[in-house]
Design goal:
mainly alpha
Length: about 260
């Protein structure tokens, strides 16, 4: 953790704060304040996303200073901030905001949730001695758990009710499903897209394929290693997953 805190990379510093969950509401509020302050002046979409996802649906003043729209400005080709704005529009009953967010999400180049992005910083600051490598792996597994517990946008499930009779909605939802199934950095998002695809079209093949890919990811067993070379290899996979997404670490036959 100290290596992250003392790194010259502001994103690594932010990851150190993010990992320090602490106990109780005061510790949580202090963590949110620090991350929000770091995000306020950054141009790094990874750091902004880390803070915003931590603050998502929190009511503190610090968290309210962050916005999904600002993330979209830092990373205009990413659908994720627009999916968050989709949720906000539903909560506010903002029809025009919903339509705008759905359009931009559906036509984005990719969907980068960046849930595993902190793994890159964790691996990069580790030295090559066995104790440091083991500590990095421990922190990486902790980071995966923290990311998995964070709340994400859910309004995309509205596409489950899309029908061809509503041509505009059908077109946008079809484009959004294509994004989820083929251009997401997360197998979970691909699974969500495949489930909605099956509901709308009756085609179960994409869902079966993603289920097989999830089994392949689990089979990598990133949480254990038999030797130092094996541990280095697992950390290398984690780093690649952080940068290029979960699909990138699967065997070529499973992609």
């Amino acid at each position: 953790m100290q290596a992250l805190s003392t790194s010259a990379d502001p994103y690594a510093n932010a990851v150190a704060v993010w990992l320090d969950i602490g106990d109780g509401n005061d510790a949580r509020a202090a963590r949110e304040r620090r991350l929000a302050a770091m995000a306020a002046s950054t141009h790094d979409p990874r750091l902004y996303a880390l803070a915003l996802r931590t603050c998502w649906r929190r009511q503190s003043q610090e968290c309210q200073s962050l916005s999904a729209r600002r993330w979209s400005e830092l990373e205009p080709d990413n659908a994720m901030p627009w999916l968050m704005m989709l949720d906000e529009a539903v909560l506010q009953q903002d029809i025009s905001g919903f339509q705008e967010a759905l359009y931009h999400a559906a036509h984005a180049r990719h969907l980068a949730e960046r849930a595993q992005a902190p793994l890159q910083a964790i691996v990069d600051v580790a030295s090559d001695d066995p104790a440091s490598l083991a500590a990095a792996r421990s922190l990486a597994i902790e980071a995966i758990g923290i990311a998995a517990a964070q709340v994400g946008p859910a309004t995309i499930m509205a596409c489950r009710e899309a029908t061809p009779e509503d041509a505009n909605s059908w077109q946008e939802c079809t484009a959004l499903l294509d994004l989820l199934e083929h251009r997401s950095d997360s197998l979970y998002s691909r699974m969500v897209g495949a489930r909605i695809d099956q509901r709308l079209t009756g085609n179960g093949a994409p869902l079966a394929q993603v289920a097989a890919q999830m089994r392949q990811l689990t089979a990598l067993d990133l949480a254990s290693s038999a030797s130092c070379p094996d541990l280095r290899g697992k950390l290398s996979l984690m780093r690649r997953m952080a940068v290029d997404g979960e699909m990138a670490v699967l065997p070529v036959s499973g992609r």
